[in-house]
Design brief:
The protein is α/β, with parallel strands linked by helices and about 180 residues long. It contains six helices and six strands, in the order βαβαβαβαβαβα. Helix 1 links the parallel strand 1 and strand 2.
Amino acid sequence: PHVHAAEDNTIRLAIVGCGGRGTGAVGNACDAIGGPVKLVAMADLFEPKMTKSYTVLMQNYSKFIDVTPDRRFFGFDAYRKAVDCLRPGDVMLQTTHAAFRAEHAAYAIEKGVHVFMEKSFASDPAGTKRLLQLAEVADKKNIKIACGIMCRHSSARQTLINKIRDGAMGDIQLVR
């Protein structure tokens, strides 16, 4: 008989930083066209924040969540454990404080994992320089780094941008 193995094209996700933006980023990934996606690991410095995030995600996106208790990590090394749950080509959602971005991204890139990071990207010029160097490494390994911009979700900002583009506000010389 002809036997074919089913291919699994599910993009596995690990969230590193389980606050409001991190939980929202998982929701955005679940709502995005182009999946399928599955959250398989969670990491945060603080266990109560991760537990709250898990509860919210299970209430709203349970069919996309497959995070067993042994894949929920907390502490300073939690990001490594979460990334280690992924396969090359999967995605780490990095939504912790900017001071940790470069360290976490470096580990993910080393493991062949794509990186989605929220802004701000670094807390100082040295962190920015390190991220730029990591971008070159990622590019050579064909690993993608994507960055979130929360303004795209603001209906007020979208309306303002449309008014500017339509000329309703005149000839704008400076936006600060």
